[in-house]
Amino acid sequence: MALEEFKARISLLLEGMVNQPEDQHEIQEQLREKLREMRAMGLPLPADLVELEKRLDDDFYAAGT
């Protein structure tokens, strides 16, 4: 999958987080999966998405405690 296709899919996921907050957890998991795929392919990860992933993880672990 090309970098531009990853960016387009991630953009749709982020839009879904805003437009469908009730599905936010599922969308977050899909976002994490896309970032894992990008890492596995050696593609560069945009810094803002890496930061978003960190904040999502922080929020997830904070909610679980």
Can you give a write-up of this model?
The chain contains three helices and no strands. Helix 1 packs antiparallel against helix 2 (about 25-40) and helix 2 packs across helix 3. It has one domain (about 5-65). It is mainly α and about 60 residues long. The chain starts with a helix and ends with a helix.
Low-confidence region ranges: none
Structural class: mainly alpha
H/E series, N to C? HHH
- Terminal CA distance: 37 Å
Q: Helix fraction?
A: over 70%
Radius of gyration, in angstroms, nearest whole number: 12 Å
Number of helices: 3
Mean pLDDT figure: 83
Number of domains: 1
Strand content bin: under 5%
Per DSSP E runs of 2 or more residues, the count of β-strands stands at 0
Biggest sheet character: none
Shape: globular
List the helices and strands and how they pair.
Elements: H1 3-19, H2 24-40, H3 47-63
Helix pairs in contact: 1-2, 2-3
Give the key terms.
mainly alpha; 78% helix; 0% strand
Describe the structure concisely:
With 65 residues, this protein is mainly alpha-helical. 78% of the residues lie in helices and 0% in strands. The chain has one domain.
